[in-house]
């Protein structure tokens, strides 16, 4: 590999290349450390060099060089993923896209952006004309749009707009192929699914078009309940209230707020909090609904104030796990989706069945037109065997688990790779150089 690598580096003269070992190691990592199962499996997995392209022309050069010298290439955004998506299993080039952060245009309802644009930067630009991203992960301050599309699935805003993979939530993707003569392919409409959530194995995303939603003034509210299922039923009722505009409904069992230091004054011990982002125009309707379910509003910030300091969104989705692990590194998590027809009964059963071992954290989102709870439960980890038992028990109850303790796409959320994705993969990456080893369906074709 060394001779090939030296030759590759020489062929990329003029591009920003990082070879310093500690920096390369740092840029070979993500937040897979959330999983005690993944840590030993990915230990010591690092790239050989990092290349930071400034534009699409430089991406084409890197793609051509990697194809010519048969060097693996792993595309990276900000490294905020949790499953080892951007950890290279076979060394090679880490392609860091963060310098590609231009926003060619923003129009009412749609934006065109380069892959390295930070989500917060796009939101800031879009809000100048009254729009914002439809959904963002809790890492929106640092995450890039390309990384979110390649490795994410939904987030804050999904209660209104569903998940990234839903038709219409990505409008176009522009990708560079890794061939002897790399091409630029623009995918539009349903064709974007050939690349969406494919962990960078199906072409290098350079630009995207994404739809925007109206930028409401979002108030932040905490409601607390003495009974967990009252909190869950309130969350469901608010989710079902189509006339009330919301961006976030997060429900937490009473064990979890101990990890939310900045919010502890607003969450009495032993209560079950619900964190909300609600359009200010819908606030007037909230107290009646809260009263109906026996809750109490303990915190409320108008939109103007909510934009300063701590955001409630940063305690939700995967940030919940981050806060908990800051206090107790033995905590890990699950990602679950409940069947729509019996979701609340299952939530109640699992809440009682596992008790303190699996602490319930729900996020409401829209699936096939209905708002349902998904869960990012916090798990007190003991052994991999016990974790697998917990997963199997959930699955036996009909709960879908997107397993965050694997770096194999099929074993995580996808279960199977779409045949269309596989066909596209063979076309855009004939030598199997893109993030190799992350899919069961793909044979490693690297020639050493």
From TrEMBL:
A GO term, aspect molecular function: D-lactate dehydrogenase (NAD+) activity
Top-rank taxon: Bacteria
Family matches, as InterPro entries: FAD-bd_PCMH, FAD-bd_PCMH-like_sf, FAD-bd_PCMH_sub2, Oxid_FAD_bind_N
Pfam families from the UniProt entry: FAD_binding_4
Secretion signal, residue range per the UniProt entry: none
Domain named FAD-binding PCMH-type: residues: 42-215
Listed GO biological process terms: lactate catabolic process
PANTHER family: D-2-HYDROXYGLUTARATE DEHYDROGENASE (PTHR11748:SF119), D-LACTATE DEHYDROGENASE (PTHR11748)
Name of the protein: FAD-binding oxidoreductase
């Amino acid at each position: 590999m060394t001779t090939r690598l030296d030759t590759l580096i020489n062929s990329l003269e003029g591009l920003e290349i990082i070879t310093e070992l500690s920096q390369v190691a740092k840029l070979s990592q993500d937040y897979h450390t959330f999983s005690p199962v993944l840590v030993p499996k990915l230990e010591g997995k690092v790239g050989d060099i990092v290349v930071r392209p400034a534009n699409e022309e430089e991406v084409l050069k890197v793609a051509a060089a990697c194809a010519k010298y048969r060097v693996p290439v792993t595309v990276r955004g900000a490294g905020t993923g949790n499953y080892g998506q951007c950890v290279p299993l076979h060394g090679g080039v880490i392609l860091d896209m963060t310098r590609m952060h231009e926003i060619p245009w923003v129009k009412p309802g749609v934006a065109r952006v380069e892959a390295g644009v930070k989500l917060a930067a796009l939101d800031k630009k879009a809000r100048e004309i009254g729009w914002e991203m439809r959904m963002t992960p809790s890492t929106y301050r640092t995450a890039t749009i390309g990384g979110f599309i390649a490795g994410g699935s939904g987030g804050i805003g999904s209660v209104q707009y569903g998940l990234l993979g839903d038709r219409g939530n990505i409008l176009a993707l522009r990708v560079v192929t890794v061939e002897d003569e790399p091409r630029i392919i623009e995918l539009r409409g349903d064709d974007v699914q050939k690349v969406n959530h494919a962990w960078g194995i199906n072409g290098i995303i350079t630009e995207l078009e994404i739809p925007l939603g109206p930028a409401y003034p979002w108030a932040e509210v905490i409601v607390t309940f003495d009974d967990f299922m009252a909190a869950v039923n309130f969350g469901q009722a608010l989710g079902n209230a189509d006339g009330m505009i919301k961006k976030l409904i997060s429900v937490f069992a009473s064990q979890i707020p101990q990890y939310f230091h900045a919010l502890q004054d607003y969450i009495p011990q032993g209560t079950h909090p619900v964190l909300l982002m609600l359009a200010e125009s819908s606030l007037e309707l909230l107290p009646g609904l809260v009263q109906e379910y026996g809750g109490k509003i303990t915190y409320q910030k108008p939109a103007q104030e909510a934009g300063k300091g701590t955001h409630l969104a940063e305690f939700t989705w995967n940030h919940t796990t981050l806060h908990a692990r800051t206090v107790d590194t033995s905590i890990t998590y699950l990602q679950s989706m409940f069947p729509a027809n019996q979701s609340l009964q299952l939530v109640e059963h699992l809440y009682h069945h596992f008790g303190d071992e699996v602490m319930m954290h729900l996020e409401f989102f829209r699936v096939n037109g209905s708002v349902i709870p998904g869960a990012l439960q916090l798990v007190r980890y003991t052994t991999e065997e016990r974790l697998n038992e917990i997963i199997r028990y959930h699955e036996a109850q009909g709960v879908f688990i997107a397993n965050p303790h694997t770096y194999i796409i099929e074993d995580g959320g996808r279960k199977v790779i779409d045949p269309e994705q596989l066909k596209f993969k063979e076309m855009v990456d004939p030598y199997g150089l893109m993030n190799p080893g992350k899919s069961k369906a793909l044979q490693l074709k690297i020639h050493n």
